[in-house]
Amino acid sequence: MSELEQVPDELASLFAAERAAPVVDAAARTAAKARMVAAVAHVPLGTAGAAGAATTLAGSGKVIAILALTLGVGAGTIALVKHADRTA
Amino acid sequence: MSEPDRPPGSGLEIFHAVYEREFDYVWRNLGRMGVPHGEIADAVHEVFIVLHRRWNDLDHGRSLRPWLFGVARRVASDLRAKRREQPTDVEPPAVEDPRIAERDLLWRALAMLDEDRRTVIILHDLEGHTGAEIAAQLDMSVNTVHSRLRLARADLLAAVRKLRGAR
Fold first, then answer.
1. A17 vs B98: CB contact, 8 Å cut-off?
2. Quick check: A63 contacting B, CB < 8 Å?
3. Residue-level pLDDT at B60
4. CA B16 remoteness from chain centre
5. Virtual CA dihedral for B58, B64, B69, B72, nearest 10 degrees?
6. What burial class does residue B65 get, using C-beta atoms within 10 Å of its C-beta: 0-12 exposed, 13-18 middle, 19+ buried?
7. What three-state secondary structure class fits B41?
């Protein structure tokens, strides 16, 4: 397998034990699969999905908030200018 | 096959087939990359969510494993950064099966390595890739791969002995 010198025996036996060990127990595997199925059930492949949609919504919320703030400040400024014109 | 000709749900079926096929590969490599036992399930989920999201960007004519390995590396790296901010106990639970005990020892020893050396030893000694394949995947020279591998084995041996001595 190796192109280099032999792997030290101590490491070689650890590597062999790691490959022979079970990766994950059945319960954890089943739970992980169920979670994945639920996560992608209604999300088309290649799209941002639920997490992406949440991010987009959060982003939209920020835009709306900034817009509202800008409009509010703009309206306030106009009102102040009109008031100044009337009192001048 | 064009999209309208595709049977409903077939894309998702392929995704789930890939999930079944690569689940152990991703799980095992996240463990090797130092992700604590209690966080591997979340990390595996994250890797496959990225696969699902990026599905249309991938070349499905080629092996997905190098790409999955790269995503797993990023996920593991993010988790490591998070753990630096909020340290948690990474000690694995006690086990009866000696193979699992040895595997856990190896994973803990690998977690003590520098990331670049750990990556080379995982790809070469555990996944069986050649120096040339690793060089192409990591965008480095074959000489660098071999040099890192020698250093990684020495570091790993020292880490294993340290952990065995600490038992």
1. yes
2. no
3. 85
4. 20
5. 60
6. middle
7. helix
CB B90 within 8 A of CB B36: yes
> Does the beta-carbon distance from A15 to B12 stay under 8 Å?
no
What residues of B are in contact with residue A31 (Cβ under 8 Å)?
41
CB B31 within 8 A of CB B74: no
> Rounded distance, CA B148 to CA B136, Å?
15
CB of A26 less than 8 A from some CB of B: no
In contact, B106 and B160? CB cutoff 8 Å: yes
Q: Which residues contact B133 (CB under 8 A, 6 or more apart)?
A: B123
Distance from CA of A13 to the nearest CA of B (A): 9
| Contact between chains at B53 and A14 (C-beta distance less than 8 A) | no
Q: How far is CA B56 from CA A45, A47, A48, A75, in A?
A: 7, 9, 11, 46
Characterize A52-69 residue by residue with b for buried, 16 or more Cβ atoms within 10 angstroms of its Cβ, and e for exposed.
Answer: eeeeeeeeeeeeeeeeee
Conformation bin of residue A10: beta by default, left when phi > 0, alpha when psi is -120 to 50: alpha
Per-residue model confidence as pLDDT tens digits over A9-57: 999 999 999 999 999 999 999 999 999 999 998 888 888 764 544 444 4
Contacts of A82 (CB under 8 A, 6+ apart): none
Q: What amino acid occupies position A28?
A: A
Q: What's the mean pLDDT in A58-71? A: 49
Interchain contact, B103 vs A52, CB within 8 Å: no
